[in-house]
Amino acid sequence: MKIGIIGQGYVGLTISIFAAESYEVVGFDINEQVVNNLNQGISHIEGVVKEDLVSLIKSGRYRATTSGKDLEEVKVVIIAVPTPLTEDRKPDMKFIESACKTIGENISDSVLIINESTSFPGTLRNYIKPTIERYSKGYVKHQYAISPERVDPGRVDFNQENTPRLYSGLTAEATEKTKNFYSKFCNQLVEVSSPEVAEAAKLFENTFRQVNIALVNEFAQISHTLGINVYETLEAASTKPYGFMKFTPGAGVGGHCIPVDPTYLATVAEANGAPATFIRRANEVNLEMSKYIVDRVQADNGGSLQGKSVLVVGVAYKPNVADVRESAAELVIKHLRDRGAVVTWHDEVVATWQGEISTPLSGADISVVITKHDVVNVREILASAPYVFDTTGKVPGATGL
User: Fold this and answer.
1) pLDDT digits over 252-298, tens only?
2) Which candidate in 257, 313, 368, 381 is catalytic?
3) 186 an active-site residue?
4) Residue 324 contacts residue 355 (beta carbons within 8 Å)
């Protein structure tokens, strides 16, 4: 059976590789360079092994394309596109609409359409289905279902096979077809009563993390004011064997989920008359953490950063991946430059970012550690500047949160 997967990023390509063991996969993406690279076996995603990709291409089980016409004969279509925020931090549905347009204009036979992209409850029923119907040349009775992605870039212990997968269709037939489809490469499928439950569950998973990270970030500020070591306090609290889950403070939150998903939940809640005060405040705390860090650095360095060379260590949003989406480093760098600092950054994993390149880990007046990759030596970080501020808790000897 031939399937189409719209979007060949972290989510779409990962699904493509696993699904291609059981199906013939057409991976659609609007980025021509990404598509050309994929068809040559060159992956831009951590965890996708080149040899695996090349093997699937040679066997005819996978190919990438920028042409919507290549989706004409598929029986299942998965939407796996980004759902980012606009500049004013509101849900941005342009990629989902583009995917719906591609489906509507190119697929005339009835197929199963599964949304894996994260969005607010009601997206499948009230947005995706009518949008596809609007773009279709004539009425096509597609089946619609949701199975929210659960992909954690760089993680090796959980993957598409062993991560439990939620799913639900708009009809019983769509639900059953979705179950049959994923059962070929996923070991644990969890059916829920409606697509809205699955959509809400995905948002709450990451809202839970956003809120708890905000709590521990605020606690780090309180601990500093009280002269208490926040990391020692958290270790002490985590000795309780029940009723506590340890989170650690940092420069903020990053990635494609935690900084974004709670806003989708808050937006739909407020649109329906329900308050989202707690969610909104958690987002504010995490966004404000970058300013707090720069305030601390400035206070420790004579009250001014004007003209000082500041090296930001690590611009990826998490250790050991090259993913810079919503990275807290971006806000930290902005605050530093706004205060007159001459900012460069070092990240051996990312290497290039926003038209700049990674600089050597040395020669700065101040170093600020945002992300600590395993390949970066602690001694080299400490030697990179007379003053080192560490937001990760992984650089003993540095000034920390």
Assistant:
1) 999 888 999 999 999 999 999 999 999 999 999 999 999 999 999 99
2) 257
3) no
4) no
